[in-house]
Fold DUF4386 domain-containing protein.
Amino acid sequence: MSPLRTRARIVGFLFILAAVSSIIGLLLYAPILNHSDYVVSGKPVQAQIATAAFMEVILAVSMIGISIWMFPVVKRYSETLAIGYVCFRLLESTIVIVGILCMLSAVTLGQAFGQMGAEQTGPYLVVARMLVAVHDWTFLMGPNTALGVSTLMMGFVLFHTRLVPRPIAVLGLVGGPLIFVSSILVMFGLYGQTSSVGAVMALPVFLYEMSLAIWLMVRGFNPEVTRNWQDSPRLVSAV
């Protein structure tokens, strides 16, 4: 199997891994995300939240991996876009990690509350709600705002290079701006991030990532475009 074929499969796998881990993490976070006072209720949520945090760690690592493995490919078209793509993926991952720390801190807060047996829950609830709110904002700014920019960059490159079928690239060109605009509208309170409108605005990006992942794993990059790349030491030796 050629290095390019291997690279395509790895990128496709990482896209799927990122999607699956983010969904599992969000579902496991549900008790705290929906009811922040759950943190100080004394219920055993540590293992569940720790598992959710681990899922988001996988998400962050997957996003970084995608940018690293795609860098030499995108660089063939534009070094500026290649660097920009890596930077925005790193930004997205960093924001996700901040959210992870907030959720783990919320669990620690719940443990402290249980050990102290405090009668006044007010201060604990305020801090718990603040931590959950920060996670909510990181979930908006990372996998929405930053993702929108990086998706637009990659869609632009894929469209002009024809490395994958153009309909897939068009999904990225449409989905990237949509989810970016959606994050701004959510920021101004026009609708909720998990509302039906938010889901519709995020759908093109989801379809783009899944179709791109499946295509790369099954078919790889367009051989007519990459035929002259096979003997390139720069691409073959890159991570």
